[in-house]
Amino acid sequence: MNFITSGQNPIIKEIKALKEKKYRDQKGLYFIEGIRFIEEAIKEKELISKVLVSEKIKEVKGGKEILKLLEEEKIGNIYTVPNKLYLEVTDTENPQGILAVMRKKSVSVESVYDDKNFFVVLDSIQDPGNMGTIIRTADAAGATAVIVSKGCVDVYNPKVLRATMGSIFHLPICYSENLLETLQSLKDRGIVLCAAHLRGSKNYFDLNYKGNVAIIVGNEANGITDSVADLSDELVKIPMEGKSESLNASVAAGLLIYEVLRCRMKQ
Predict the structure, then answer these.
(1) Interatomic CA distance for residues 54 and 172, integer angstroms
(2) Name one GO molecular function term (predicted).
(3) Which site in 9, 63, 213, 219 is 20 to 30 Å from 246, CA atoms measured?
C-alpha cells in the first residue's frame, strides 16, 4: 500500500473534487463508499481506478476481509491515509473508512433493447434519494434499463449512489440528451409509453403491462412535461382516497414498476 499524509496530495484533491458534477464529467470518474458497496463493485467486475482507506480500516467489521479481497482480485492503486484526513474526504456521516474511485460507464438505449423491453424513464427527477430509490426498485423488478433525462440529478451524485444500495451496478443506466427523441425511438420499436399523470383517464392497475412498455415518472413538483405527456400512449393516475394530493416520486414509481412485474408474473 501507498501512504498519503497530506491533504495537498493530488489524489486527495482529485477525490474531493469528484463531489462536484462538473469534475465527475470532466474526469469520467466518481467514487463510492463502504465495504458492501465496494464488494458489490468487485463482484460485478466494475472498473475501479483507485481505493482510499483509513488507517483504522482493520478496526471496522469486515475491514480486514475487504483488504484481503482487494488483494485477491489484484486491485492496485490502494492508498492509506490517517483517519483525520479520510474524514476530510468522505461524503458520509459515519464512514467505514474505505472508498473506491470508479470509472463511469456510457450505455446507449439502442444497446439494451431485447424481446421483452421494460424501461423506467425519469423526466427531471431532482431529489437524489428519489433517483437512487427508483433505480434500486427498477433493479429489483427486473427492468431492462433506467433512462434519465438531461434535467435529472446526476446519477453519480454520492447521495444517489448510496440510495441505490449497489443497484447502480446491476442494470444499465442510459442518459438521454433529448428525451423526446429517445421516447420516439422507443415508440418506433413498438414500446408502449405509459406515463404517470394527474389527468390520466385510467388507474394504473387497469392497464395490461405484459408487452413491451416504458413507465415514465416526472419531476417531484411538476410531474412530466407537457411534451412528454403528449407523446405518451397512456396517461395513468394513482387513485387518491385520502386528503394527500400526491405521492413521493419514488413511491409512485414503485407502484407502477411493480404493477408491470405483477402483470408479467401472471403471464
Answers:
(1) 31
(2) RNA methyltransferase activity
(3) 213
Q: How far apart are CA 112 and CA 261, in angstroms?
A: 19
The pLDDT tens digits for 202-232 are 999 998 899 999 999 999 999 999 999 999 9
Q: Report the run of H or E that residue 234 belongs to, with start and end.
A: strand 234-237
Q: Which of 102, 115, 5 is nearest to 45 (CA)?
A: 102
Domains of the chain plus CATH, in order, are 2-103 (3.30.1330.30), 109-266 (3.40.1280.10)
Is residue 138 over pLDDT 90? Answer: yes
**pLDDT at residue 87 in the model:** 96
Compute φ and ψ for 63, nearest 5 degrees.
Answer: -65, -45
Residue range 163-191: mean pLDDT, rounded: 97
For residue 159, give the nearest of 130, 123, 124, 125 by alpha carbon: 130
- CA distance linking residue 264 with residue 248, whole number of Å: 25
Residue 189: pLDDT over 90: yes
C-alpha cell at position 35: 465495504
Report the distance separating Cα 151 and Cα 123, nearest Å.
7
